[in-house]
Amino acid sequence: MRIALYEPDIAGNVGTILRTAACLGVGVDLIEPMGFPWGDRALARSSMDYAARVEVKRHPDWATFEAGVGGRIVLATTKGAVRLDVARFEAGDVLLFGSEGAGVPEAVHARADLRVTIPMVAGVRSLNVAVSAGIVLGEALRQTRGWPS
């Protein structure tokens, strides 16, 4: 299982996701361009010393990422077709999260093998991407018995 971030905008969110991935033993794919220079101090501050413990793959664009993806692409989206609590995950899934400002374009949305949404109360737009990644990853690891031992 992996986490993929589509054109992330905020270094602090990427750092938080890297820290989560390190603690839970999953790799991270970063699909460029990113909205900050790689190695930015904000990234280091939020990921602390955990970033070195994560397998990070950087992809120059969506096409390169898509050509090398090994499992199903599971997109977390506010326009999701399946609620997270009824979605079924597989061990090889790649959990994809869009950029903080724009999400993902329609072509990426359409390419997803599964689209999931986190149930939320009415009247709110969305959760922070790092929080969303933690919630979706936690459910996916629970279902696939992928929690670290």
Report on the architecture of this protein.
- The chain is α/β, with parallel strands linked by helices and 149 residues long.
- It has a single domain (2-144), classed as Alpha/beta knot (3-Layer(aba) Sandwich).
- It is 34% helix and 19% strand.
- The protein is built from 5 helices and 7 strands, in the order E-H-E-H-E-H-E-E-E-H-E-H.
- The protein has helices spanning 11-24, 41-47, 62-68, 106-111, 129-144; strands at residues 2-6, 27-31, 56-59, 73-76, 82-83, 94-97, 114-117.
- Strands 3-2-1-6-4-7-5 form a 7-stranded parallel beta sheet.
- Helix 2 (41-47) links the parallel strand 2 (27-31) and strand 3 (56-59).
- Helix 1 (11-24) runs parallel beside helix 2 and helix 1 (11-24) packs parallel to helix 5 (129-144).
- The protein is globular, with a radius of gyration of 14 Å.
- The model has no long low-confidence stretch (mean pLDDT 92).
Layout of SSEs?
Layout (H helix, E strand, L loop, with lengths): L1 E5 L4 H14 L2 E5 L9 H7 L8 E4 L2 H7 L4 E4 L5 E2 L10 E4 L8 H6 L2 E4 L11 H16 L5
Parallel strand pairs: 1-2, 1-6, 2-3, 4-6, 4-7, 5-7
Helix pairs in contact: 1-2, 1-5
